[in-house]
Amino acid sequence: MKDKAWDYTILACNDNSATQIQQIENFITSDVDLIMVHPSDPNAIEDYLKQARDAGIKVMSWDDAMTNTDLNWILDNTKLGYAIGEAAAKFINEKYTGDKKAEVAIMNYPQTPILLERETGILNALEELAKDKYKVVAQQPALDAQTALANMETILQASPDTKIVCSIGAGGDIGANEAFMTVTGGKIPEDMGIFSADATQQQLEAIVNGQATRASVGFEGSNKKTAAAVVDLYEKLLKGEAFAEQNLVRPLTVIDAANAADFLADYK
Fold this sequence. Notes:
44% helix, 4-stranded parallel β-sheet, Rossmann fold, elongated, 6-stranded mixed β-sheet, alpha/beta
């Protein structure tokens, strides 16, 4: 955006819909050209997004299939969760048996509908693909790494044989990896693994360095590629280009030891 000499404002609503509504209202008053919103509560902001569009502002939603938008840049979150669970199930089938079941912790965030969809996808894949070779010993909320670390430490106290974690996002992955690195003294056993989404730089570094993170489902491939894709969509919206569908579904890419170094290079 800087290269295009665009002015921009980035605000966090801290998962508070009242705060987000006020932010949208302020953007409308400021007569911005485009608003992209990652909804805290999609139903709570629909009318305010309509007000923005009525004022001639282009509106783009991140992750939610909204009604009062020009474009929704979305994930099939159940499919994303399934891809996470599929990678974990493959690992479980290689390392565990019906007599030696994997103890699995789920890092979730069911308060947010799309993240509940991811968790559902994870659980469906595990049940379909690794049936009788695992048991879920804990399901804990973990949007950020610090919360995930604390929750993972609690899980390991109650279930010290927990070696598999499936996380709906980067925070749960990073926190669980830190907990595993501490409890193992950095010597990660071959039957320990974390499977997640987002494929951030820190997650890819963990994969490349042989830590507990084994695979993460990414989208465009790196934050740089995602940013470039977003700005390209902004430009098309601002130029008035029409999209064939209101919902543009993002691609899914499983990043693991086989390809993590290639994607990591894009972060440098």
